[in-house]
């Protein structure tokens, strides 16, 4: 055999005990009946591979690690025992291990804190990150860097993806952002995206302060102080803020100018400004101090402010009116707001202390006026009435405050009269009652109206403005109301009219009252029946209290004078009738019998009723009416024969048709109740006789025979 060379590549993750499929022996080495023996050179230190001595199959005996050993060179001995002596052959195997991405990039630290000054320019290198990857091949160990920010909307930093250099991308400002938390990631570049591995590092970047901010004043540039404050009084607190840190933000205060007279002292640490000398507004009422706020940075930064201090006046003067007494006149009845007078006072103080307020002091009638608190003008607050109050004496006051100082003046106001009052009646309406029999010309009421005005404005005249139907008149001067004709309540029971009271001015102010005159009734009308003569009927035999009729009477009077009572004046001597005194209902008082009394009529004194209608006046008046009452018949009486027995003697030879006799009966009833019908009810069985049913006449109808019948007994009935 001769020496040979073989090369192949196996992946790093090739599993032990697997046959390296890429190892192929020449076919002649595997010929049948050949006795071959395979072995690996014994001086090989690596024990990653083994070979089957019989078949020549090469096995991986332990896991590969590209990062430890990426190449193997094996010398394989092949001994052929087929020939004698055995022949030897050597094959060199060159094995390359193919790297697998089995290592993640890693940083040496888990957390890094970096400090950077806030004034570094954009693009300044802040830090360089170094991550390592244990893989051996280029792409598996090639690292790319990326950056994420967790607590800001905008990332002020950039990282180079290949070199890992972190630089500023925007200007930094510690006063806005004190620190930034970043996440730096290192990712390898394995060909397959899914095989790529990464590691992350948390980074805190602390922005270091630089004295880049000047102090800024926050206190007001204006302050006020009273002129009478004591030395050492706190006038103002000067404050300034510096957003820098540490000594860069520590502020001290200084007065640069305006305090030449040393009127104020300033605490450089606290900024409290106090008085160093007494103040006098009359000497100097305003100070302008230029103050400086200085920080302790290097170099130091500062700011200035002009502080104006206004010295306030102290109220030490009293206001004085130009006059002690103001006199004027004002017309009554003017609209509210009418100008009356203007008062004026002066005060030698300044500012608010010289500002005066005018007012009216409480007193009688003061509420009727209003004073302009600023101008001192007095105007009416309501319409004035001279008749209520003619003269007003009020006090005006000028006042100032802090503390209060004031002075007063007197105002004497006269109200000029105008005809502003109507005559007034005592009441807006009157109601009186008079009897209807009052004589013509009688005074029924004396009206009175007053007018508070003077002269002609207060002279009152009376008149009527409504129709009184000629019944009343009024005296224009005295106001007496008199009757002008006889009154009749039944013609008109009430009069309502208006009475006017006028004064004598040209404007004729006037007022009215309503007069109501009620006419009292006098019993001057007798009751009157609706009819003078009445007819009525009633059945006999009715039970007592049976209604017969109702009569009505009227009385034009009112009250008791018009209340009517009914009674039976005459014709009721037997008390057969009753009448309801209030309703006029006539009823029976006993059972009436037609047969005993046919009528209670006018011709017989005992048979007619005279009814009486009386009022309840004093004296009482009355009238009468006659009632004819007919008692109607009821069939309450049976017929009665004139004789209970009739005896008649006739000859037997009397011819047929002869008149035998006549029976007669009487009935006390009347009309059809008294009409009688006769009939034979027995004794005429053979029909010898005929009875006329109307007249009661009995005639012979058959021949008589004495020998057969000597006697006939007829029973006759009258109905």
UniProtKB/TrEMBL annotation:
Its main location: membrane. It holds the Pfam family Cadherin. One of its GO terms (biological process) is tissue morphogenesis. Residues 2-107, 116-217, 225-321, 322-425, 426-529, 530-641, 642-719 form the Cadherin domain. Keywords: Calcium, Cell adhesion, Disulfide bond, EGF-like domain, Glycoprotein, Membrane, Repeat, Signal, Transmembrane, Transmembrane helix. The keyword Calcium applies. GO terms for cellular component: cell-cell junction; plasma membrane. It is found in: Membrane. The keyword Acyltransferase does not apply. GO terms for molecular function: calcium ion binding. This is PCD23 protein. It comes from Galbula dea. The gene is Dchs2.
